């Protein structure tokens, strides 16, 4: 399973481990580090963040991911030939890091766990999306 940044932040605030089978896209690791700096996290949260980043596998960008990145971006904008957006869904610009996160989940065929709506249009593209309540 792949975890979006917002959900990992919840786990860090609660000092709660992720499930053992979780993987973390490298862009999420960068977002977490930036969030910790900008939020002036204290020793306890920073230490737990470092534990998470050291314990769980970090997924780097690979050539396979770049192809999926391009496909997710084109699909989201309604420009992927042969795979139009389903009726009722409109084209959207996704955040670039969110595209990498979705591409990682698609590449490994893992569930993507998140609390936000940025990925709601992607189950029609094959993304296994699991929404959690925001806390």
What is the domain tally? Answer: 1
Tally of DSSP helical segments: 5
Low confidence ranges: none
> CATH first level: which class?
Alpha Beta
Share of residues in helices: 40-55%
Distance between the termini: 20 Å
Strand content: 5-15%
The chain-level mean pLDDT equals: 95
| Alpha-beta classification | mainly alpha
Give the topology.
Elements lengths: L1 E2 L1 H9 L10 E2 H13 L4 H13 L2 E2 L3 H14 L19 H13 L2 E4 L13 E4 L4
Parallel strand pairs: 1-4, 2-3, 4-5
What would a concise description of this structure say?
This protein is mainly alpha-helical and 135 residues long. It has helices spanning 5-13, 26-38, 43-55, 63-76, 96-108; strands spanning 2-3, 24-25, 58-59, 111-114, 128-131. The mean pLDDT is 95.
Write structural notes for this entry.
- The chain is mainly alpha-helical and 135 residues long.
- The chain has a single domain, classed as 5'-nuclease (Rossmann fold).
- The chain contains five helices and five strands.
- The chain has helices at residues 5-13, 26-38, 43-55, 63-76, 96-108; strands spanning 2-3, 24-25, 58-59, 111-114, 128-131.
- The strands form two sheets. Strands 1-4-5 form a three-stranded parallel beta sheet. The chain has a two-stranded parallel sheet with strand order 2-3.
- The radius of gyration is 15 Å and the shape is elongated.
């Amino acid at each position: 399973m792949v975890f979006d940044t917002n959900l990992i932040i919840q786990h860090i605030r609660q000092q709660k481990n992720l499930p053992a089978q979780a993987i973390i896209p490298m862009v999420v690791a960068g977002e977490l580090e930036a969030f910790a700096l900008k939020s002036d996290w204290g020793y306890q949260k920073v230490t737990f963040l470092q534990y998470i980043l050291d314990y769980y596998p970090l997924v780097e960008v690979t050539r396979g991911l770049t192809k999926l990145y391009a496909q997710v971006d084109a699909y989201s904008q309604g420009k992927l030939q042969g795979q139009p957006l389903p009726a009722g869904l409109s084209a959207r610009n996704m955040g670039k890091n969110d595209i990498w996160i979705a591409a990682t989940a698609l590449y490994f065929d893992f569930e993507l766990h998140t609390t936000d709506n940025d990925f709601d249009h992607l189950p029609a593209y094959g993304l296994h999306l699991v929404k959690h309540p925001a806390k």
